[in-house]
Write a structure and sequence with these properties.
- By secondary structure, the chain is α/β, with parallel strands linked by helices.
- The chain has two domains: about 230 residues, no CATH class; about 100 residues, abc type-2 transporter like fold (3-Layer(aba) Sandwich), CATH 3.40.1710.
- About 35% of the residues are buried.
Length: about 350
C-alpha cells in the first residue's frame, strides 16, 4: 500500500509538473508577494467619521463647543446628531466611525467615547489624549472620560502595515484554495484519459489514489506559503503553526475539490459550481478588512477562522488559542471530507 501510494504521488507530481502546476503556483506566489512589497502602500487608512451629541449646559459648554467647532472646521467627518441613541444607530450604519457623547457629570462634564470594538488600544488612547490636549488651557479641570465598546469580542487589527496585512489572505486563497481548483482540473484530465477506470482494475485502492493527489496539492501549498512568507515577513513568523494550518486547510480544500469533481464528467459541467463555491468561501475576506461585519453566515464558513488563525501565525500576538482551535476544526473537517470523497468515488465507479 505504501509503495503504491508513493508511486501514485510521484506520478501525480510528474503530471502536475508537465501541466505547469508548479510553475503556476510559483509565478502566482512571486507576483502577489511582489505586489504586496512594492505596489500596495503601507498605509491606506481613511479618516473615521465622528458622530457626537451634547447633553451638557454647564459652565464649560462654551469651551467644549469651541474645541469641537475647530475640529469641524478642519475635518468634514465630524457630524453632529441629536442623541446618544442616534450616535449608536449611525455607527451601526458606518463601521468606520466612532461616537462622542458629552453629558453632565457630578461636578464636571463627562465625555463618553463610543467605539466599534475592533480599534486597538493605541488608537483609543490617542483619541482620548488628543481631546484632553485640546481642552488643556481652556478649562481649569479636564472633563471625565468614559469609554463604551459596542462589540467587545471583535478581533482587533494589530499595528500591521496595510500591504503586509494582505499576506494572510493570500496564504488562504492561494496555497489552500488553489488546491481546490487545481485538483478538480487534475481529476477531469484523468477522467478524459480513462486513468481512473484503468486504475480500479489494478490491486490499487481508491483511498491511496485520492490521497496521492491531495499530497501533491499540499506540497504545492507549502511551496507557495514559504515563497510568500519569506519574501514579505522573512523569518518573523511562527512557521511551524503556519505550515500546520496550510497543510490541514490544503487537505480539506483538496478533498472538497475531489467531492465536487466526482459528480461531473468534465470541467465544463462543473465550472458554475466551482465558481459559486469559490465565491462563497471567499466571503470572509469582507470581515477580515471590516471586523465589525461578521454575521453568523460568514463566521460558519471554514475560511473565516482560517484567515485569522493564519494571521496570528504570521503576526503573532500570543493568542495561540485561535491557532489550536482552527487546527482541531480543520483536522476533523479534513478527515470527514476525505472519507466523503472516498465514498463519492466508490459510488461513482459503481454507477459507471
Amino acid at each position: 500500500m505504501i509503495k503504491r501510494f508513493l508511486w501514485l504521488t510521484k506520478k501525480d507530481a510528474v503530471t502536475a509538473y508537465r501541466n505547469y502546476y508548479f510553475l503556476i503556483v510559483v509565478a502566482l506566489a512571486l507576483l502577489f508577494t511582489l505586489l504586496i512589497r512594492f505596489v500596495v502602500p503601507e498605509d491606506t487608512s481613511v479618516k473615521a467619521t465622528v458622530f457626537y451629541s451634547t447633553n451638557y449646559s454647564g459652565e464649560l459648554r462654551t469651551q467644549l463647543d469651541e474645541t469641537i467647532g475647530q475640529s469641524k472646521d478642519t475635518n468634514q467627518n465630524v457630524v453632529s446628531v441629536d442623541s446618544r441613541e442616534e450616535i449608536i444607530e449611525k455607527m451601526k450604519e458606518n463601521t468606520n466611525s466612532f461616537g462622542m457623547f458629552i453629558k453632565q457629570g457630578d461636578s464636571r462634564p463627562t465625555i463618553e467615547f463610543i467605539f466599534q470594538g475592533y480599534e486597538n488600544d493605541q488608537s483609543r488612547n490617542t483619541l482620548i489624549i488628543a481631546m484632553k490636549d485640546s481642552l488643556s488651557g481652556k478649562t481649569a479641570e479636564n472633563p471625565k472620560i468614559d469609554t463604551i465598546v459596542l462589540k467587545e469580542n471583535i478581533s482587533r487589527d494589530m499595528n500591521i502595515p496595510m500591504n503586509k496585512n494582505i499576506l494572510p489572505l493570500f496564504l488562504v486563497m492561494e496555497p489552500a484554495m488553489l488546491g481546490f481548483v487545481l485538483i478538480v482540473s487534475l481529476i477531469f484530465m484523468e477522467k478524459e484519459e480513462g486513468t481512473i477506470r484503468a486504475y480500479v482494475i489494478t490491486p490499487g485502492k481508491i483511498p491511496e489514489y485520492l490521497a496521492s493527489k491531495i499530497t501533491v496539492m499540499v506540497v504545492l501549498g507549502i511551496i507557495s506559503t514559504l515563497i510568500g512568507s519569506l519574501i514579505v515577513v522573512g523569518f518573523n513568523a511562527d512557521y511551524l503553526s503556519l505550515l500546520a494550518l496550510v497543510i490541514v486547510s490544503g487537505i480539506f480544500f483538496s478533498a472538497l475539490g475531489l467531492i465536487l469533481a466526482s459528480f461531473f464528467e468534465n470541467i465544463s459541467q462543473s465550472i458554475i459550481w466551482l465558481i459559486v463555491i469559490s465565491i462563497i468561501l471567499s466571503l470572509p475576506t469582507v470581515s477580515y478588512f471590516f471586523p465589525s461585519f461578521a454575521p453568523i453566515y460568514i463566521k460558519i464558513l471554514p475560511t473565516y477562522s482560517m484567515m485569522f488563525a493564519i494571521r496570528e501565525a504570521v503576526f503573532s500576538t500570543g493568542n495561540t488559542g485561535i491557532i489550536t482551535s482552527t487546527l482541531i476544526t480543520f483536522t476533523v473537517l479534513s478527515i470527514i471530507s476525505y472519507l466523503l470523497a472516498i465514498f463519492a468515488y466508490n459510488r461513482s465507479l459503481l454507477r459507471d
